[in-house]
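Data availability (excerpt). The following record was deposited with the supplementary files.
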Amino acid sequence: MKSIYKICFAAMASAGILASCAKKDLLDPTVVRTLNEELTFGDSVRTVAFVTAIYSELGANSFNIRYGNGGSLAEGSDESVSRLFGATQAWVPLMIGTLNSTRTTPYEKVYNNGWNNIRRANTFIKNFSKLPLAEETKNRLLGEVKFLRAWYFWSMVQHFGGLPIIGDKLYTLDDTILEPRATYADCIEYLVKELDEAADLLEAPDVQRPEDYGRVNKGFCMGLKARILLFAASDLYNGGQESIASAEQKPLIGYPSRDAARWTRAREAAEALINTGWYSLVENNTPTPGRGFYELFITRKNDEFIFPAMAGNNRTMEANFLPRSRNGNVNGCPSMNAAKRFGTNTGLPITDPASGYDPAQPFKNRDPRFNNTIINNGDKWRTSSTTPTPIWTYIGAETDGVDASLVYTGMFFRKFCNETSTANAGTNTDRVMPIIRYADILLMYAEAAIEENMFDEAAEKIILVRRRAGIKAGDGRYGLKATGDLAYWRSIIRNERAVELCLEDSASGMCAAGKQRP
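Predicted structure:
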């Protein structure tokens, strides 16, 4: 494709000033209303509101927003099964491979949100010099906007490959837009440069004002940079394009040839963030092993979240995932494949004879993340009357038993759900959705280090994650072998990501980039 997708000029929402995009086909031009830039950027309150509006769709490409009806990338992979399996569900074509040019969901949100918010960012940059704000505030907002523009651009690169790099350009409806697509390599370098520049304008998280939590800081930039470089180094993009791609297409969807130095670059980006000391794992192994892992996802602010997507007090996740007996919609439930990836509390996989796994008691002695991610048969949960009672999922159970018509798997998601809530009663949880967190950065470092044959360094980071998970130390290696077998370490890191980051979208993304499931 040689020309830019027709840009859907953004819905600009700032202090009551609205613009709108009429929904048509994905690539159709759009009728817009004009933003009054003089009024918006001549007022400090409206200016800040304009920038804040760019944040509003950060999570729209992930979690339960993107696919509607509580769906996520988990249902498009083998992490989760949904009772909503009709052809009209947005994730179904992705899962069964029937996505085509006339069936553009779920990519519409990625595409429309991407270009809309890039236009918003460029509109701010165009008016930057005349903003009625102190220089320090102006520069901080510029750093935020440059990060946000990079985030939306990166979201599209993941789906569409190389895009036109328009920089600070703003187009009008009268312009003929014939920007060529940049190569994947050029897009990566553009993003790294943008994130470095944004970081230079922003505060470190340890000095950011408490009331600015959720606004971009240096940690956001460094975390996203590490993720981008890890994807770029992965098998899918690092000279690993499919053979069906033509010689002309390959530079648009990845690097034409493999370069092992890309792993080093990714590791160094993750290491730079680790070395700041800004973040740490939420670790608490009382009263049960791995309790900190559960608490992490129902806590709005903690030392592990690097890039959170803001949300108000809600029971959204409980409504999406809890069983009918707790008034949940069961829009997704764990697959057997996902459940089997969780090893035992020895740190060994359930297929290892030394793990202690008992098929007759499959919920016993598992990796504590198993019980903190999945509600199993007999687990207790509060009811509308506040008393915790068992959730029975066996075949024939009166309320929550396996029912093939609803594609139940005999398990429900616990992760992100507050055990003091049902879908319509109890706690409204003050939480956010993590897009990048510190455990992810540690595993990014480990994955890159493994590809550099730095197995001891990788083990150190994996052990930190496993210790927080509540896995038994054993000989001090938390179930990890002391070996130089590259295949072993690759299987370990891919499975560790799938377990630690289950239901967080980043696990699915990195497994796709690795061109295989764990």
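Summary of structural features: The longest strand covers residues 305-309.
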